[in-house]
Design a protein that fits this description.
The complex is a heterodimer. Chain A is 66% helix and 2% strand. Chain A contains 8 helices and 2 strands. The longest helix of chain A has 41 residues. In chain A, 45% of the residues are buried. Chain B contains 9 helices and no strands. The longest helix of chain B has 31 residues. Classes of the chains: A mainly alpha, B mainly alpha.
Amino acid sequence: MSEPLSCHPAPPPETTDRPFLNGLWRQNPVFVMVLGMCPTLAITNSVRNALAMGLATTFVMVCSNGMISLIRKLIPKQVRIATYIAIIATWVTVVDYLVKAISIDVYKALGAYIPLIVSNCLVLERPEAYAGKKPVGKSLLDGLGMGLGFAFALTCLGTVREVLGAGTFLGVPLFGKDFEPWVLFLLPPGGFIALAMWLLTFTLWRERKEKIRRQAQQAELRQALEVIL
Amino acid sequence: MNESLTHIFLDAFLINNFVLCVFLGMCSFLGMSGKFSTAWRMGVSVMFVIIVSSVLSFGANLVLVRFHAEYLRIIVYIIIIAATVQLTEMFIRKESPSLFRELGVYLPLITTNCAVLAVPLFQTFRKYNLIQSTVFAIAASGGYCMALVLLSLVRERTDLGDIPLLGRGTALTLVLAAMLSLAFMGFAGMGSGG
């Protein structure tokens, strides 16, 4: 297994080694790498749940990234995946009990999806791609950036679904009494549609930026040519 | 828990289809559904892993409850799954090297398929007995396999379609999945009768 552990065919290459910002924006786990889809779609029918899930995942990622990076030289290459999974499962158990202690309501709303953080491919992909090779400080930052990027994407999705599907934001009604909620967005198909729309928006935005960059390049070239001629 | 076996089966297979209604196993659902030939093979491998690990973790849970070590549940389940995947990998490599090459990196990735971990967890939460758990595992994994095959058939068609460049890739797959999911919402009414 030498190939990167990701479910998506080709994640974009890491351009610069800026762990925190990369995760937050340039390599955003959901919008760019399309990883960790299960919680992204299942838990985002309200902003509160999305935030809670995002923060729980961030905690697991920071802790497991740090721990794996700390003992990376002791892990034999052949059994590294099994070791990573065991470490991640330990931290997920910790989070499971933490969330139960902090808020039983959130715990009930997230249900089986907290133990399922273990099988979130994003959480396993980071040690494989980053924390298994880099020093502790950078790995911690990478976990934090990726986790917060994940939480950010979940909140984006949760906002669209809650505002359209229930007419509220964090439980506060936004529109008057006459608002007829678009219930479809709280149901499973709404999750797929909302995520597809976000992906399209981001692709459109990136394409646009690329176009502007190319035009600038051409203009520069033309200027240079004029100077030569 | 005295749910009838038919009800458990229908519930996991259609009404609460693992992929389209509960959003489990999304990564492989989106990643492996490009071609029909790989999709059904992947589906069958996952089915095998789910059924075996479901039975094994039922036994493991009995031991954990006996020794009051429920907090070890997640770790034990994931280890059982990893072992089962390893077993499947060895079996496929021996029986069909060509299939082994075709599945490639996705075979070990079954370990991180949340549908596989969800079956043991759900059967524990719902307190199913051994027969109920097995039926649940067969139905849930069958539902996963069916959804994967359905989406792959649709996607093979769209390969030839005239789709704007911008919409190709994941966004298109998600919209197709949304339509399938809408269709599966029609089964929701069956739940109340069972």
